[in-house]
């Protein structure tokens, strides 16, 4: 996490989600986008969640990434009380492998959107990249860094199998 005012908030329902959600932070670090992370459960710490989500915009956040499993209430609960874009990352679970969380996030009622990404670590990484793309709409420096990231990613894919990048 950087020392400047965070633009992205990463929230998760429990400490155990950090193993997955830290991927979002690592991706934001690669793009030099300031972020913060908090554990705030929709069910166990609802007042903390409400305070975080309602104060987020006034504190300078532009996007919230919310990781949750099982009932996946965290992203929807945050989206219900903030005007900021909320990107949901379903956690892999032992019961249905994260499918339950994915479906819960994807089936939000009209008027409370959650941008739902893939399950687990890939979803956390992609949530950070989507947050960067949202921020890039109004920040040319972030746009340049995101373009460079994508160009490097493309350059790392060999054209002919067996080539070293």
Describe this structure in words.
The protein is of the alpha/beta class and 165 residues long. The protein has helices spanning 18-30, 46-55, 73-81, 99-106, 121-136, 140-155; strands spanning 8-12, 35-39, 63-68, 86-90, 115-116. Strands 2-1-3-4-5 form a five-stranded parallel sheet, with helices on both faces. Strand 1, helix 1 and strand 2 form a beta-alpha-beta unit. Helix 1 runs parallel beside helix 5, helix 2 crosses helix 3 and helix 5 (121-136) packs across helix 6 (140-155). The longest helix is centred in the last third of the chain and has 16 residues, at 121-136. The radius of gyration is 16 Å and the shape is globular. The two termini are 30 Å apart.
Biggest beta sheet summary:
5 strands, parallel
Low-confidence stretches: none
Q: What structural category characterises the helix and strand content?
A: alpha/beta
Number of strands: 5
Number of helices: 6
- Radius of gyration (CA) equals 16 Å
Describe the protein's topology.
Blueprint: E1 8-12, H1 18-30, E2 35-39, H2 46-55, E3 63-68, H3 73-81, E4 86-90, H4 99-106, E5 115-116, H5 121-136, H6 140-155
Parallel strand pairs: 1-2, 1-3, 3-4, 4-5
